[in-house]
Design goal:
242 residues, alpha/beta, 7-stranded mixed sheet, 6 helices, 9 strands, 19% helix, globular
Amino acid sequence: MQRMTQGVKNIFMKPVTNTNSQVDLSSRQLTALSLRASQLSNSIRWDCVVTLSLAENKLASLPASLAPSLTLLRYLNLKANQFKEFPSVLCAFKTLEILDLSRNKIKALPYNSLGNLCATLKVFSIAKNRITYIPPYFGDFVQLEVFKFDGNPLQWPPAEIMAAAVDSNLQDLKQFLKTTDLPSSFVPSSPQDPLVFGVNGGTSTPDPLRRDRNAIFFKISSSSMPHIVQFSNTYSSSINRQ
């Protein structure tokens, strides 16, 4: 509770940048996040937010209410926080296209799936974490155009495959992951995965040691997918300069 109180106080040290669709809560020393209006800003309409920056705080987790509250979110910056695990709530976002988790302490990505993100992400940065392998389901990412992974102690896929992906040429990487089994040494004994989101919005727990591509479905309307190619290019240029 004391950490939460301190986090709330830090928010008021500088005003929230809010233009209805863009909210900047970066560099506020936050250790916890609450979406309650009384703790942040009465002017924030979370259901209207398209871009949210929580970069350079001290967050180690995210509230379960994040995805249900930010139904239009397309860009989320979580760079330079204290995450040691991939926040499973992110897998529930249905419109998220750009996700920056660089400069954290994440040791592994979820073993079986990233849920809805497999269908929506266009730009994904996990640079400068502690990740040792890329899971096979990355080969099924439908729209991924930019993938930043430098600064991790990657052991799989092989270095020559990852080298080809440095310049955002992801086709070879995707093909490799689709056609090559993950070495058993990287299979966790008790994988802790986020829930898999089904076609009717329900959830189920996947078989922890079996990757069945046919068992995972996504209900994403192509007509509702936002188009932010220019924004993706701008973001890609910015993270290249980090």
